[in-house]
Amino acid sequence: MLLDDLRRRVGDDCLVTDTDVMESFAHDEAEWAPYGKPAVVVRARTAEDVQAVVQVCIEHQTPLIARGAGTGLSGAANAIDGCVILSLERMNKVLEVNPLERLAVVQPGVVNDHLRDHVAESGLWYPPDPASSPWSTIGGNLATNAGGMCCVKYGVTREYVLGMQLVTGTGELVRIGRRTAKGVAGYDLTGLMVGSEGTLGIATEITVRLRPLRAEEITVAGFFDTMVDAGKAVEAVAAAGLTPSALELVDRNCLKAVDDWRNMGLSVDANVVLLGRTDAPGDTGLAEAEQMVQCFTDAGATYAVRSEDSAEGDALFAARRMAYPALERLGPLLTEDVCVPKFQVPTMLGRIEEIGRRHDVLIATLAHAGDGNLHPMMLTAQGDEDQKRRSLAAFDEIIAAAIELGGTVTGEHGVGLLKLDGLAAEQAPEVLALYRAVKRALDPHNILNPGKGIVA
Amino acid sequence: MLLDDLRRRVGDDCLVTDTDVMESFAHDEAEWAPYGKPAVVVRARTAEDVQAVVQVCIEHQTPLIARGAGTGLSGAANAIDGCVILSLERMNKVLEVNPLERLAVVQPGVVNDHLRDHVAESGLWYPPDPASSPWSTIGGNLATNAGGMCCVKYGVTREYVLGMQLVTGTGELVRIGRRTAKGVAGYDLTGLMVGSEGTLGIATEITVRLRPLRAEEITVAGFFDTMVDAGKAVEAVAAAGLTPSALELVDRNCLKAVDDWRNMGLSVDANVVLLGRTDAPGDTGLAEAEQMVQCFTDAGATYAVRSEDSAEGDALFAARRMAYPALERLGPLLTEDVCVPKFQVPTMLGRIEEIGRRHDVLIATLAHAGDGNLHPMMLTAQGDEDQKRRSLAAFDEIIAAAIELGGTVTGEHGVGLLKLDGLAAEQAPEVLALYRAVKRALDPHNILNPGKGIVA
């Protein structure tokens, strides 16, 4: 019945029912997050396809889970038994790049790096740069309000989404938001949709704000003996009034995994590396870089240098970008995403180390340190159930520590399935009730990714 | 009964029932927007006062209209007969300024300029700068998502509100949002509250994001014979890839009103003046200023110059800031707030002139031109009913033209009462229905500023 109706509305060539193929659409990259067996995967080509799928799902009271590339890390795109998975990857066209208005209009399946390269030809820049940018889609970035490295200066996805065409929870195809630089007509539904993990509507066309291409970045690298020293350097950069265009932390475990994989010759004699960048033009950039070196040194760096050779800086940043896939090769990887106030970064980094030691878990840590957004990753051996249990215990303790230090359980990956308990621990019952009220208002049939993102 | 309950809950010294005093709290500065007679004005001192007032209004099914300084221009703060007006002006403390986290926590009644001055002592800057900044409050700025001059580079109020303490439509006192640099736990209720004109909740404490103080600005002034030429200069600045820190347009009528009032000796021999600013540091700023001069000249400026003397630039900007009060002295002033795409700025400026001529209405125009946000103001003589009728006709035609050119009916002043028809003309019925669904979800008793902001 469901399949017949879908076939009639969107055509047979959009449907996937092969069990093995469906399996590859049934989950994102969140380790150990549960997922079920979809009834069907629909590979939409048009907004009208998406609308038809929503309408059929309403008729059949069938849960609908939209997804982009499936690179999420929270389980938000995971299947529920009998659900419809709606893949938006085929809707991958850049429809407009407008240098004068500094915006682009894209379909949701456009890959983040593809958009960045495409608009660069017009002298423009799309800032949000999650580590998944070579694969993840703008639709998925919108659903998770994705962050990245340059967000410490330029903000996250929500700050770049001006408007969208959207299929609502009642199956209507509408436009929300704007193309103008400013606009305050009506409630900010656009911002509400960003980060809502496909639970309030499905974007079928997205208008993003762009910036002019910026000056070449200068990189500063600092080596530290301890996490706490590196954390103090992060605090010092903020206290000095600097706004780096990136301030990333990579620990020894991450660098070793990259070097073992790609043999990059990163002979880094440090337990922790901080990578700062500035894109301020001319002398201002040079001065900012020097100030960052000073902050690193004052905080106890064993070595701190402004990289004159942009290739060297690029190599270290490339290693940082490769850390996640390099670690993933080694076995199941449980990724944390807490975000704490900047003054708590040294304390939180210390707590993560202590939690790892106490549970005898190998934790590799990456961080958008300048934002206080930390990604400790619990590495386990495939099939080692005891290690898995200890990793999950460490995961929960890190969440609890972040809340205790005034932080949040998720800085940029989203709640999905993995952070539902964390969300309930972090926020007041009255606020959770407001989320449910919004959900009921915009998805009255409760078919859009039910059970994800907010506490039922 | 209502008064008794309020007296019991918040104390007699918070209540105002004198008819003349209440009249001064019964409306904002929107010309000719209707307003009624409040039953009482409550001057709250604490969040608990606000909560008590909301709870009493729920019990009595009485409309509740929160207000700051009443400088709004849309009628959003206007009284309904028998309503409770809740003034937040007494809640005017800056509770925290945190240079490391780059945030401040303020009560809603803090005046915008006061916050800016206060945080400057810590080397920090609160960007949103509506022309009302000497009087308007952060709570009111939040309710309207206020813009201003520097928004062309730095964005509007929504981009600076991290979180808030809030009394909900069901009378609960909760905290939403965050203090961390990033965070994606739960739906973006904070962004939703910003710009909702007191229809979804009442902020009792606001956490705002700050930036480091910036470099001294350089001013560029250009004189133009026609609106359309000035519009072309605006387009040229955007096309050149420049991001000025302000790009304001002031016409002869505005300058004359300021000069007549304050005798500033602004002997400007131009029909239209464009004022550009750059705050890029060092050589970059000088180069940007030169490029702006070139854009002005190429677009047909009769005179264009980079002001070496910052006092001269400041004087022209001061005149621009004084234009609104200077014009208000002359009689009823109906202020428009349309925003169009940048490429439509010359066309829209031409249309405004044509509409003024056709209806024989004197229109003075101010604009945040770099954003495409135009404020044509219809000047009338007190008591001239025919002129009033013609002004209102011009007002409606300007709105229609903005929609036709792909713009919005309100760039920064909000919908309030004056733009309800405009909102309905601009947006699809399905989108208006989404607003109503959100309103019902978060204000189920329909007591928070009913009839404003969205189309019932």
From TrEMBL, chains A, B:
<dbReference type="InterPro" id="IPR006094">
    <property type="entry name" value="Oxid_FAD_bind_N"/>
</dbReference>
<keyword id="KW-0274">FAD</keyword>
<dbReference type="GO" id="GO:0071949">
    <property type="term" value="F:FAD binding"/>
</dbReference>
<dbReference type="InterPro" id="IPR036318">
    <property type="entry name" value="FAD-bd_PCMH-like_sf"/>
</dbReference>
<dbReference type="InterPro" id="IPR004113">
    <property type="entry name" value="FAD-bd_oxidored_4_C"/>
</dbReference>
<keyword id="KW-0285">Flavoprotein</keyword>
<dbReference type="InterPro" id="IPR051914">
    <property type="entry name" value="FAD-linked_OxidoTrans_Type4"/>
</dbReference>
<feature type="domain" description="FAD-binding PCMH-type">
    <location>
        <begin position="34"/>
        <end position="213"/>
    </location>
</feature>
<dbReference type="Pfam" id="PF02913">
    <property type="entry name" value="FAD-oxidase_C"/>
</dbReference>
<dbReference type="Pfam" id="PF01565">
    <property type="entry name" value="FAD_binding_4"/>
</dbReference>
<dbReference type="InterPro" id="IPR016169">
    <property type="entry name" value="FAD-bd_PCMH_sub2"/>
</dbReference>
<comment type="similarity">
    <text>Belongs to the FAD-binding oxidoreductase/transferase type 4 family.</text>
</comment>
<keyword id="KW-0560">Oxidoreductase</keyword>
<dbReference type="InterPro" id="IPR016164">
    <property type="entry name" value="FAD-linked_Oxase-like_C"/>
</dbReference>
<dbReference type="InterPro" id="IPR016171">
    <property type="entry name" value="Vanillyl_alc_oxidase_C-sub2"/>
</dbReference>
<dbReference type="InterPro" id="IPR016166">
    <property type="entry name" value="FAD-bd_PCMH"/>
</dbReference>
<protein>
    <submittedName>
        <fullName>FAD-binding oxidoreductase</fullName>
    </submittedName>
</protein>
<dbReference type="GO" id="GO:0016491">
    <property type="term" value="F:oxidoreductase activity"/>
</dbReference>
